Each structure stands twice: as structure tokens, then as C-alpha cells.
User: Fold these one by one.
Assistant:
Number 1:
Amino acid sequence: MKIVRFLAGNKASYGLMEGGSIKEVEGKFASFIEQPPQTTGRSFSLEEVKLLAPCTPSKVICIGLNYKKHAEEMNLSLPETPVIFMKPSTSVLGPGKEILLPPQSRRVDYEAELGVVIGRPAYSVSREQALDYVLGYTCSNDVTARDLQSPDEQWTYSKGFDTFAPLGPVIETEIEDPNKLEIRGYLNGKIVQESNTEDMIFDAPYLIEYITACMTLLPGDVIITGTPSGVGPLSDGDTITIEIEGVGQLTNKVRRR
């Protein structure tokens, strides 16, 4: 099941993407994990709607240095515990929308990442139960103003700008194993990142256990799980695409603010 959020006219709705069409569904996002969304009988072609970010997270929890080869390329030792920071809800961006390069930065990087979308309130969840709280998975891009990233691991300022958390285009609910997915980044059509989530230091169930020992995750919250090696700069006019096996492709244009 591929869950989307879309704009038809002035109304934002959730829907199920099937081929080139979207079937509108009723009910609240928080109920989707309990039972499959029920369709309203209305359907739209992709040409009739504008796709939005597939959920509206209260927070985006981000994991730094979670791929072995990325830590190597950054000349950093492997972390003993997850490196966690947050992006505000105002940084979330939908598919097809523009990543805006801020005037404060001279280097803004792409980072292809798997997003884990929470489906029910989660607090103090065990690793063994962790995936029961996951609605599905999405593509994400941890856009980063690299020259503003502090070496003392206070990263929110460099990663929290508006438009710096592209998500989408769908939430795929039928991924059997999030720890064995191909992940790629394409800059202007050229592969610049290529890896597999097997290279993660901390997998999705461990991250959910670790994070919920501290804070409650709410339906629609997203954990973006770190990026593989190959990160690099974005320029005005670029197109960046994040591709995750079984989930799809998230594409955004880039523009200098």
C-alpha cells in the first residue's frame, strides 16, 4: 500500500496511489496503522493533483554518521551510540518542490536517507516490538548547510532551514525488511550515492528503541536514518533524486533563495 497526501483544488487529503491514479481515503492518519484506510469513492489522476509530503510530522528525528562508509569519508570514528538531532516541522518539503539554498551558506549538501514513518504513539518501545509502531517507509533528503555544521555535533542550525527535509512521494507500508534496501542518490541524473541499508551501524528497530527511551514519537513523526557515503554539494538549478528500493523516487529542484 502506497499512502500519499495530496492537494486537489484547495483541499489536502490522504490517498492510496495505484499506478497513475490516487484513490482518496477517509479517516485520520493515526488510524491507518490499525486498519487499512477506506476509500471515499473519489479518485484523481496524478495530473489533477499536487503531491505533498506524505505526512505532517511534529518532529523529524535525524541520525548522524549511521553508515560505516560515510563515517570513513568524513574521517570520523564510528559512534558508540546514535548521534541524534532534530529538524523542525517547518523544514519538511514535498516532492517536486524547490530546496532553497540560504544566503548564510556557501555549501549545501544532499544526503539520501531512508525515512521511517511512525504510525502509533511510541514510548519506551523494545527493539522486538519496534516495527509494530511503524506505518511504513519513505524517501528523505537530509539537506545540510555543510559550512555551518558545527564540529561539536550541534547540527540543528545547519540542517533545520526551511525546505531542508524533503519527504515522499509515498509511505510504502509493505516493506518486509528495512535493513536490506538499496539506496541511491542522483544529482542531475548521475548516481552520486549508492549503498544498502545493511551498512547501517544502528538499524531501524534499535533506533526506535533508543529514541523512545527518551521521547514519545507520535503518528506521522519520521526518523531519517542516516546517509551513505557520496554526499556532495547542491547548486542553483540542480535536480536531486533520492531512490529507495521498494519505496520509489523523491525528486526536488534546487534554487538559490
Note: The domain at 60-256 is CATH 3.90.850.10 (Fumarylacetoacetate hydrolase; domain 2).
Number 2:
Amino acid sequence: MFILTYIDSVGKRFVAVIKYTISIWTMVYISMRSGFSYNKKHSFVEILKVIGAQIYFTGFQALPIITTLALITGTLIIIQTSAQLSKVGGGDMLGNLLVVLIIRELGPLMTALVVVARSGTAVASELGNMKVNSEIEALESMGIDPLSYIVFPRLVGGIISVVCLALYFCFIALFGGYLICQFIHPIAFSFYFDSIAYAISRSDVFLFLIKNIFSGGMIFTICCYQGLLVKQSFTEVPQVTTKAVVNSILYTVSFNSTVSLLVYLKNLKELGIL
């Protein structure tokens, strides 16, 4: 009896996840279509202003915390990997390890977590308060599509910000961390730069873009979706904000982990291990 109850519970959760995912992707499609098909020039200028404000808040204002995390992460990884590889004579693998750890994995993941904590919560609570204050209904009464004026610019601005922040994180982690590492474990710059340059491939760039574009899209779509679920009470705002953060992290981490797993399985298959 317990097993049947557990299976039924898992089935209901799975169906709920599928419905939620469909709702999220539907909002992405409708928002993009509404935003790109909006023909009023003055309204498009306003949308560009909102996109710029979102990039400023999500991207520019997050630079201090991203810089700090990147320097700490890059320094620790460079020191640990170079010290361990030098013991076994594997110094030539330094670039490959740094590309895998920082560009493929930690860069997209750390950036997504920072954006969720800073901007995701702000977007969800902002839209929730707008819904309670009937600002969404006011826009609709003026003939303005909320998805094109509210969701679309935050989605576009969020994706641009996440990609740029992740790129900045990787640059600071690799080269800022290298400068700090020089005071502890000196490494020749020519060797360091060449090892990273030879290690980066097109597949790394492709994975980097895919992970960050998806993370930015999912974070801001989920946060907008949860914010718009608020009905009439201000007490619902912190509840939907919490759900937005949890769901954003789950979707982002799940996607990044799945992509990384598929890539590593593909590599193992090419080596003949699988």
C-alpha cells in the first residue's frame, strides 16, 4: 500500500513538473513573439529603456560580487591544480583542467546563482507588487501587452546580462586569479596563456553559450511567471519569490548537469570506454 501511495505521489509530482515546464516555455514563446512584433515606435523605445535598466541592475551592479567570487575561485583552483599536477609531472594538463572547471562548469553555475539571488528575487517581488497594486490591469486597460512591456525586456536584458557576467567571471577567474597566484605559486605567463589558448575549443564556447543563455532565460522567465501568479494579497509576494528562487536554481542546475553529463558520456564513447 505504501509503495502504491509513493508511486502515485511521484507520478503527480512528475505531471506537475511537466505542466510547469510547458507553462514556462509558453510564456517564453508568447513574450518573444509579442516583443518582436510590437510595431509602435514610441513603445519600442520604452521597451529598450526597460532592457537597458535591467542590464544595468542585473549586469553592471553585480560586477563587485562577481569580481570577488571570480578572484577567490580562480586563485584557489589555479593554486590547487598547478600544485597537484606538478607533483605528478602533468603540468601540460593545467589549461585543460582550468577550461573544464571554470569555463564549462563554475562560470555558468556561479553566475546563475548570483543572478538568482540578486535579480531573480527582485523581479519576482517587483511583478508581484505590480499585480497587487493593479498596475498590470492598468497597462492592459491602456492597450499595452504586459508580456511585451514587462516580461520581454526583463527576459532579453537578463539573458544578455548573464552571458556577459559569465564571460567576465571566467576572465577574472583565469587571469585575475593568475596574478594573485604569482605571490604564492609562480607560473610562467607564456606557459599559462598558451596552455589555456590551446585547451579552449569550439565545443567549449558552444557549451558556455548554451548554458548561460538557458540559465538567463529560465531565471527571468520563472521569476516573471511566479510574480504574475500573485492574486490580491501582499503576503503572497514573499511566497512566490521563494518559489521563484527554488525553481530557478532547480531548472538551471538540472540543465547544466544534464548537458555536462551528456558531453562527458560522449567523450567517453569517443575514447572507447563506453
Note: The chain has a mean pLDDT of 85.
